Every structure is written in structure tokens, then in C-alpha cells.
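RETRY 2/3 - previous attempt timed out on the joint model. Re-submitting the same 698-residue input unchanged.
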Amino acid sequence: MESSADSKRVTLAQVAELAGVSVMTASYAYNRPERVSDRARSKVLDAAERLGYAGPDPSARSLRRGSTRTLGVVMGEHLSYAFEDPEAASFLAGIADVCADRGYGMTILPITGAADDGRRVTEAAVDGFVVWTTSDDDPVLSAVRAVKRPAVVHGGPEVAGLGLVGIDNRAAARAVGALAFAGAERPAVVSFPLSRDRISTITTGIDPADVLFPVTRERLEGYRLAAEDAGIAWRDVTVAVCARNDTAEAERLTAALLTAPEPPDAIAAMSDQQAAGVVHAVRAAGRAVPGDVAVTGWDDAAVAEQLGLTTVAQSLRDQGAACARAALGETPDAHAAEWSLVPRTSTRP
Amino acid sequence: MESSADSKRVTLAQVAELAGVSVMTASYAYNRPERVSDRARSKVLDAAERLGYAGPDPSARSLRRGSTRTLGVVMGEHLSYAFEDPEAASFLAGIADVCADRGYGMTILPITGAADDGRRVTEAAVDGFVVWTTSDDDPVLSAVRAVKRPAVVHGGPEVAGLGLVGIDNRAAARAVGALAFAGAERPAVVSFPLSRDRISTITTGIDPADVLFPVTRERLEGYRLAAEDAGIAWRDVTVAVCARNDTAEAERLTAALLTAPEPPDAIAAMSDQQAAGVVHAVRAAGRAVPGDVAVTGWDDAAVAEQLGLTTVAQSLRDQGAACARAALGETPDAHAAEWSLVPRTSTRP
DNA sequence: GCGAAGCTGTGTATCGTTACACATATGTCG
DNA sequence: CGACATATGTGTAACGATACACAGCTTCGC
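RETRY 2/3 succeeded.
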């Protein structure tokens, strides 16, 4: 109890002194126990106990070792919604699995869309980054590239020097779109936001190439191909853009779509959450799925099975894990993930 | 381009040298731009650009500054489920809000239930901790206390030296239990796990005091009081223990409850997810809510409104934020959060 | 015209730890 | 019994950055 009164941080040197050994012996007692005798180790541990030493300081250790044993995760301006979006949550869970297994921490970076986001990336004490799908022009991407640490982007965009993990969204959209639009005359699409301002609108004639979010862009392109495959001109396809990936928002916009003089008879959404909103709106309007309106979702979430949604299955959890492994340098940093079509009862046979 | 070829980390000293200024001027250029002349700052920034300097090293900075500007979050053995539990997700979102606002990072610690969890806490480069509800005997708690940094526990247990944020679970359970059990003859409870082994069972006569998870314990105590208030002996109340906070699990156990010779006519759950499972099971058994079985949930999640669940409203998001503020030392570290009763149609009027 | 006050720039010490190389003691083997 | 491997302990020098205190120079009021 002697010198434990001063509230300043206790250092390894003080522990070593009290234990009557050198600093290195004390350090080894923590980091390579087999390197010191049992007797010395217990002297050190006793002294540490007496002084209330909390163990080697993590910052000092990281500095000296050159590694923080922590992975950074960038969720885009999304941050506070990230935890509410089930797909994002699965993705995070996949990263968490890998980090937990390797003993790595997982730092979620406080990105808010403000100007100092770049600083937040630069200042993060992490060994590598995983970036959740964002827009082509997201300034955070250049910040991530600038720090020159291993980094992997999920979904896109593709950035020179950074890894990329994701599925072939265009091919998957074309495939699920084929089921959605089969036999339809007036297909529609319920889409994620097209630009960073994230506004909800209903339009036609969008050029997918103009869309800044690569995942959304590729899916729109796939839906366009699917429409054309079904003999329908893309300019005749209505696109309802949802500000958020959200059941309520999709329901609201679908209700609006259905009031049109020639309402859609097939709606391809970009997530199962959205598709659930679409189904609710269709039914609320007194129409049947798929009789009056065929509906497709994306992700094969729990709600898809409940509602019998035809959807695209992909494991965001596996993809999160793949991103983490790549950002840790364990695997190559480019990775095409698997997807598959899950036909259910929300589309016509 | 001269010396940028070597792949070793570029240091501030090298930047300063190339810029022809002192190291401190270079440091100020990054940290206190107003402290140096524009000319000097741009010389430094140019030199940094040329050398590919990624900015001051975060570990070195943390060491020198004595602060990491990062908050640690401990989710218990829960980790990989944490992101799938909507309540936990709201809580995390609340922490994220505060961290983002303050420019703090948020490190999720890789706790797995294994023996080295304590080390993970000790080695985390964070300024403070927020601990998500855990059991009285969770060894992580002593590790958190041992590091002597500000820490707040959400829900419980109460640990000397650590802050505590949460609602009065016992009072809330007694209140919502009163609605659930009003006029009932054979009430039942659908509960969270009672011990760390997390097994699903159906039993009676549990002594709430034996339960290791404080939140679960207090809610059970509240339900017991509610049952006794309604003139029913606690030993007659069946308790279905769910291994996980999960709709499917609650549905499965409720289905089992309903096959009993004298099935329950009122079921109080511990979350809206569970209550949703209860409602599904009741309806699947061809019985009515609340006519045949009254049901209550907890948390006032979106599903509660959809199903008309009587529930306890609390904002996990606000509580997460409160924990973060306390762990950052901005507010006192004990905090009784608000809750309120939300009567809906799943209980008898 | 002169002291006070502000603006910029600089050296040095230090944050707490671990890598490395070396010193000493102990054990092993022909 | 000498040589050589194996265990254990130690001192010193980084790791990369920032706090602090001070020095030179400009500006300003009176």
C-alpha cells in the first residue's frame, strides 16, 4: 500500500523496481511468460497487484510494436443508421466474428458526412480498414487510401490500391428481375438513393450510369437489362427512389405508385425490407401478390421467408468476414462473393 | 520523389527536414494550424504530400497525449449476436451518436466468453468503457474495474467503482405485469436466460434471487410481485426460459406451453421480439390475443406497434448515449433512465 | 522612441513500452 | 573436465509524437 496513493499512472518501471527486477524482466512477465522464471514472474505480478498496475499501456505497446491489433470499420454517413439496417448488422457481425477469433478489436469510425471525416480516418489507431459500400465520390475513400494501410471496400466503388469484396450485382439483378418482370407489362423498381443527398422521388428514364452508388448503379443496370429482356423499354419503367433502406419508406412510395392511372404490375426492390413495404402497400390497396403485382426483394432476410418473397440470397455475414480477413492481410484483397436466386411465391411461376 | 522509395513508415521528422522547418513546426501544422504561419504550414503539407506522409501516427500521439479518443464497448459473450439483437443495436447507435459528435472512435471489444477476455479488456486502447448488461459473475467486469478507467455498466450488475445506467426494471415489470396478469388465472412468463449456460427450459418455482443476470432477475421479481398483486402464487407461474432473445425461440417455447393440459391465459415476455413469437404461437394454436391469452412485451419496438402489443417503453438509444457521456466523464456516472407503460390491444382492458 | 504584447519558430525532454544484444548461471555430453 | 547449448536476467536504444519554455522579431500605444 506504500506508494499506491499517488493517482498518476503506474508504469512498468515502478513495478519492476518494487519487484526488484529489471524493467525487461517485468515486460517479459507479461508478454512472454515462458521467458522468465516462475519466481521472477510472480514477484512481478505481486508487485503489480500491490501498486494497482493495470498492465502494459496499450498505446505505448502499439507504438513500440508497430501494430494496434485493431481493425477499423467505416460505415459511411450511414453510421447511426448502420445498426438499424439488418444487412449492415449482418455485415458487422461477420467482421466481429473474425476479429473476435483473432483477438483483434474492431473500431467503428465516427463518420458523419461532415468535413472532418477524413481526419477521423487518419487519426484512427487501426491496422487496416473495412469500408461499407459507399458512393464513387465519397471523400472518405481518398482518406483511407492516403493512410496506406490495408483496406477493403465492400460492394464498391472500386478504388485503386484498395481491395474489393462483393457479388456481381448486375448479374443478380438481371436474374431476379427476369422473375419479377416475367409476363409483366408495367414493371417498376424500388431503389436505394441515387445520390448523396438521399431524397425520395418517383421518376422514369434514369440513366443508371449516372448513379453514384456502385451497388445501386449495378442493380439498376441489371433491372434495365431484365426489362429489356422482357421486351420493355427502360424509359417505361418507373423508379421509386427511397431515401432510406426502410420498410415504411418503401410502403409509402409504393402506395403512391399504385395510385397512378396505370399502376405497375411488377415491382423489383433492392432489399427485402423494401419488398416487405411493397407487399404491405399492395395488399393495403386491395390487390394480390403476385396476381396483380409480382414483387421481388434482395438478401433473403427472415422477412423474405415469412412473406414468400422471391429474392437474391447472399451472405453479408460471410462477406463481412471476407473483408475482415482481407484487411488483416490473411487473404487476397479481391473477392467475388456468392449469390443465388431464391424463387418463392411473390412472383408468377 | 527523392527518398519516398523506401517503404518504411514516414515520420514527422522526415517531413520537417524536407520542408526545412523544425519538427515542432511540422507538428503544429497538423495539430494547431493557427499556431504557424500559412507559409510554414504549406511547406510542411507539401513535403508531407511528396513523401507520402499519412499524418501523425495515432499510437504515438495517444502515448504522448495520454488519451486515445476512443471509447471501448463490451457486449459480453453476446458479441456476434449483438448486431442481430435490435435492442443491442439501438443501444450501440446511441453510443455511436455521442462518439461521432465528439470525434471519438468506438471500439467493440472482441469478447467471446473465452478465458482471455480479460486480456482483451486490458489491452484495449480506449479511454473508457461501456459494458452492456451482463451477469453478476462476469469476469470481464473485474478486468474492466482493474484498468481503472472510467466505465459504465448498462442494466447491471452494480459494481463498485463503475457507473450504472438503466431503468428500474422491477418497477416496470410489476407495472406491465399488472396489465398482463389482470383477470388471468394461469399466468406465465417468457424469460431471458437465467445463467451463463443459456439453455432453454420450461419450469416453475424459480427463485428470482438466484438469477445471475440483474436485468432478468429484476424483471422476474417484478413479475412475481405482479402475480402476487393479482392473487396468484409465484410457484404457480410457469417460466419459459429462452436461450436467446429471439422471436423464433419464444414461438417454439410458447407452442410448448400451449400444449399443457392447463395452458396459460396470460404471458409476460421480456422483449417485444419474444412477445411477437408468443403472439404468433398463440394464433397458430388457434387462440386469440388477448381473448384467450393476454400478452405483453418490452421495449416498444416497431413490432410492438404492428402487433398492438402492450409493452414497456424505454429508449435504449438514449441510454446508450447516456452511458457514452458518462464513460467520457461528461456526466455523473449513475443514471436512472425513464420508462413508461404503453397499453395496447394485446392485454384485456 | 521604448517597453509591452503578440506572433512564429525552435530544442529538449518525455510519454511507457519492447527489441536487441549481451552477460551470467546452469546443465549436458563426450 | 572443458566445450557448448540452454535458461534467465539486464542495459540501452529506439518507436513517433507533443508539451513546454524560451528566443527572435514584429507591432502598437503613448
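Chain A touches chain B through 56 residues (CB under 8 Å). Closing ticket.
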